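Worked problem 6 (solution included).
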Amino acid sequence: MKNKKESIKQNIRSDIVKGLINPGQRLPSIRDQSQRFECSLNTIISVYQELEKDYLIYSRPKSGYFVVAQEELLPLLQPKRIDFASAAPSPSSIPQMEFRQCMNKAMDLFEASIFNYPDPQGLFSLRQEIVKLFHQQQVFTSEQQIFIFSGAQQALHLLAGMPFPNGKTNILVEQPTYWGMLAALKAQNQSVIGIERTPNGLDWATLERHFQSNLIKFFYTIPRFHNPLGTSFTPEEKQRLAELAQNYDVYIVEDDYLADLETNSKADPIRANNGSSHVIYLRSFSKVMLPGLRIAAATVPNSLIPLLQLHKHTADLSTSVLSQGVLEIYLKSGMYDHHAKQMQSLYSHRIKVLRDVSRRLLPEEALYSNDVSGGVFAAIRLNDDINTEELVKRLYNRGVDVLPADRQFLSSFPKLNLLRLSIIRTDDHDIEEGIRIIVEELEHAKFTRGSPKPFSWF
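Solution. The predicted structure is:
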């Protein structure tokens, strides 16, 4: 009977997928379906109830059941691609049932708040949970210093546009860096200076010269699992950054977007070091939770609180209460910690596979100079005479998606010919096959252009 019921459920789901029943259309009655599938009325009632729980159909009293929305075509009907380009988690890695439970609970617990404009700084109860989470990363702060944003992108946009207590106006960014930060700076026509970041880190003499002489308002950095290089600063480098910031009255915007994926218990953020009075610590939840919830959190120095309160309030009045409520419940219940550890294990395994496969398939000169020990990104550097656009097209035609790093550089800064690889939507087979195809296409580029060394790993 169970197999019969499941077969009926899949048949009705298939009718919706194929468009035989459109959104808003009434499904056949329970009696008609029981006759069609030669089963009891109770079996059809149970099938409809399960489809309703899947948010595929809904019921209207005394009217029957109706389709909510047509599902996307089944992925199995589409050719499988090797996705080295995406930076958002795969839907299959997200515990959607847990999120639905948290969403329903949030609707109950925060019903009154949904009909009001809450504190622009964020729900106080959520900020209490964020304080506990940050403490686990050795970032000791208070609820008064915590801000909840509609995604890290909003935080970066606001910080880029608002004045800072040091009265300075120029913004220093690593090159390359996260494209979203560069987009925010360009949209606001901010004065931006770039500093090169290589697999070996920063040129400290150049950094100090910028801090000393170029009126730097803040320095935006991704110290852990850099995007796109995948590398991390050492504890000594983080301490040095914090001290330089304090000495020269320059703020640090520390984008710790992959803190949950750290496996080294001694790898503390910059904010955990002496000199943290000038560090703004920013955490995204998009790589562990649903990106669509649009939630990020930051702790800021006391000197910035009034200014940021004003700019946050004028930007959106308040971050979605429902999204904040879901995150709070997810944190309190222990679901977040459990899921974050699963993602840490999963991505740590994949980046290790990428490293091992690269060492095995790529020639010695192609290996990265500093091992990428975690996170989700790595990068390939091509010779300048390689046509990156043509290479990306050839890879696409062979079912491999990669992302050129062009937009991760300032237009005024010398660009390196990089491809960013993400392991976030891959598996062991994808990585092995994808690197093999990339090597073949780079060999093709080498022979067609006569280049002896077409690439090297970062």
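Discussion: The chain has a mean pLDDT of 88.
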